[in-house]
Amino acid sequence: MKALFLKRRQDFQKQQNKYLRYVLNDHFVLVLMFLLGFAMVQYGQLLNHFPTNHLPIQVCLGILIPLLLSMGSIATYLEEADQHFLLPKEEEVISYIKQAERLSFLLWGTLQTAVLLFLYPIFRRLGLSLFIFIILVLILLALKRVVLSRKTRYFLRGNRLDWAKAVAFESNRKQSILKFYSLFTTVKGISTKVKERTYLNPLLKLVKQTPSNLWLSLYARAFLRSSDYLGLFLRLMLLSSLSVFFIHNLYLSVSLALIFNYLVVFQLLSLYYHYDYHYMTSLYPENSLSKKKNMLSFLRGLSFLMLIVNMLCCSSAPKALILIVGMVFIACIYLPYKLKKIID
């Protein structure tokens, strides 16, 4: 049993390593190092000029600590067929899950403690002694153990394993990891959920129902009804807008905003293939050139929508000007080049 789950873990790690090279490319690592250096400088300035009003710092810590506690999951590596073929080995599977819970606590507890140690100077400035800080770390470790145990009890109660819930839990865990990698490259094995969202149907009326807009209408429907596309768009647009609004450094805020907007456009390029498995689309009278034009029009429309939202969050003319230039470059130069590369 251990050999089976060990092989599954190694296979999933190999799959991650294949995508990790796209995440840790030269450009991303360079941006990451720049952001890390900027964050360390800002952290040092915060400690050197610690505000007399501690309330904002306390609020931030009050948000961060629950986030740290909620982080982490149990990697069971269960698969759909296991609820049938491993049912006679349920006791061994339960023993493995309990061991996986302990390993998860060791990993995420260590990460949580490392973050708290990094924030120790702030706690000192807030008046906490070393003894109280150690007590706080131990209490949070105990709470982390409780949180992970509660996650395990979702599908494991005593010696009874709810196979359906356990398989769904592991599937959701893997999907969340793969969706992160999908921000940087095309990832196989991601499942999508479709919701009708009738309250968004009025937006579909903005697209004229003409033969030339056939693919544009289909792209709009897929975008609004697929949780992956719409959720990704809203999350990254929110992050780009917050970067513009809260970060006062001109180049950092605009760089982050453009990176988030670029990721939106890059990910939504997969819409081009969304209907490839619908064989009836091969009967449509519109050719691939019309499909490409509609894709370009749709993504440009979303790009300029993001630009408008970002502009509403701008506090200075130079920031707005750089955003406009950057988004025009993405929409008018990068998109046609990338679409041509995809089709060719």
From TrEMBL:
Pfam families the UniProt entry points to: EcsB (PF05975)
Residue ranges of the TM segments: 20-43, 55-78, 105-123, 129-147, 229-248, 254-275, 295-312, 318-337
UniProt protein name: Putative ABC transporter
Keywords: Membrane, Transmembrane, Transmembrane helix
Transmembrane helix among keywords: yes
InterPro entries associated with the record: EcsB_ABC (IPR010288)
Keyword Membrane: yes
One Gene Ontology CC term in the entry: membrane
